[in-house]
Design brief:
By secondary structure, this protein is an alpha/beta fold. It is built from nine helices and 14 strands.
């Protein structure tokens, strides 16, 4: 294939721009023609791509004609309306929103975990929630060895999980000490921790927590997996951190588990607590890896491990996962063969 006509809906947003960066010099996704799409607010502006200025077009129903591949990162409402319109034109439509994640016929994919879901598939592909992605990347190799039974996870999620407006809100509070009127948070975020991501249901579970439960079960093909998440927003610009307790059906050897994680695709082990070496959000920012450390045996329970897992939520938790999905889809079509597959 000489090159692809690729559309990016939400091209001017935080994740959209990061998708463009991931595509720009990626030989595994040869882009010959970029269609940058956004709302009326930013339509007509220009973005730099492969050394050229590309005009941003307003997203419309005819925007996807002639496209080979489309990425959506413009919110669930936009995806629900336009992704089914794009699908008959683009062979693969990779959606970063929650719109289609739990549709039974639509694959929800983390390439390191369930790449097989893309075999012989064309159509809409759902990109999981950022906090789910990094957790399942860390748990999948352990599950294959020991048999995962239960997960209890607490997340410490950066403000970039709320997009550029979350970063602006934190930066303004740090500078002025005052919460801005357009902050996406119900309380100040600077020097604070908010156990509140998305809306709460009648039982007190947040939308983010519900996503982690149902998405983890679907991606790992474990429909009865016991998952107990508590999700919190912290005053960090980029990088989500997670404290994970995982229990398995088989006895776990911690040294073996550490070596297993070191050899797993996409994982970077930082686990020397005595030398102050463990995953940090500042270290993960700008990286495509999932950092794992603080790997500990649970006292009195040789079937369980505690882990500290960190990743860049904008890159690994969104843009990079989406572009890796595209790489695998193209490889499966045998039109482009990624080197690492």
């Amino acid at each position: 294939m000489a090159g692809l006509r690729v559309a990016v809906a939400g091209a001017t947003g935080l994740v959209g721009r990061t998708i463009l960066q991931a595509l720009e010099h990626n030989p595994l996704i040869p882009v010959s023609n970029l269609v940058a799409l956004a709302s009326e607010r930013t339509a007509g502006t220009h973005i730099d791509f492969q050394g050229e200025q590309v005009e941003v077009r307003r997203l419309k129903e005819d925007s996807f004609r002639g496209c080979d591949l489309a990425f959506f990162s413009a919110g669930a409402a936009v995806s629900r309306r336009f992704a089914p319109i794009a699908a008959p034109h683009a062979r693969w439509v990779i959606d970063n929103s929650s719109a289609f994640r739990m549709e039974p016929a639509i694959p929800l994919v983390v390439p390191e975990v369930n790449a097989q879901a893309l075999r012989s598939y064309r159509g809409i592909i759902a990109n999981p929630n950022c906090s789910t992605i990094q957790m399942v990347v860390a748990l999948a190799p352990l599950h294959l060895r020991y048999g995962l039974e239960s997960v209890v996870v607490s997340t410490y999620q950066s403000v970039s999980g709320s997009g550029a407006k979350g970063i602006r809100a934190l930066d303004q509070e740090i500078v002025t000490g005052v919460q801005s009127p357009d902050s996406p948070y119900p309380h100040p975020i600077a020097l604070n921790v908010l156990p509140h991501i998305d809306t709460f249901d009648s039982d007190g579970w947040s939308g983010e927590e519900h996503k982690m439960i149902v998405e983890t079960r679907k991606i790992m093909s474990l429909p009865d997996l016991h998952v107990v998440p508590t999700t919190a927003r912290v005053p960090v610009r980029i990088g989500h951190s997670e404290s994970i307790y995982a229990r398995f059906s088989e006895r776990v050897d911690v040294a073996d588990a550490r070596e297993l994680l070191k050899s797993a695709d996409g994982i970077i082990v930082r686990d020397e607590p005595g030398e102050d070496v463990y995953p940090l959000a500042r270290e993960a920012a700008g990286s495509d890896g999932v950092f794992v450390g603080r790997i500990r045996q649970i006292p009195g329970d040789d079937h369980a491990l505690a882990l500290w897992v960190v990743a860049d939520n904008v890159r690994k938790g969104a843009a990079t996962n989406a572009t890796r999905i595209a790489e695998l889809a193209l490889a499966n079509s045998k039109e482009v063969k990624p080197a690492h597959v």
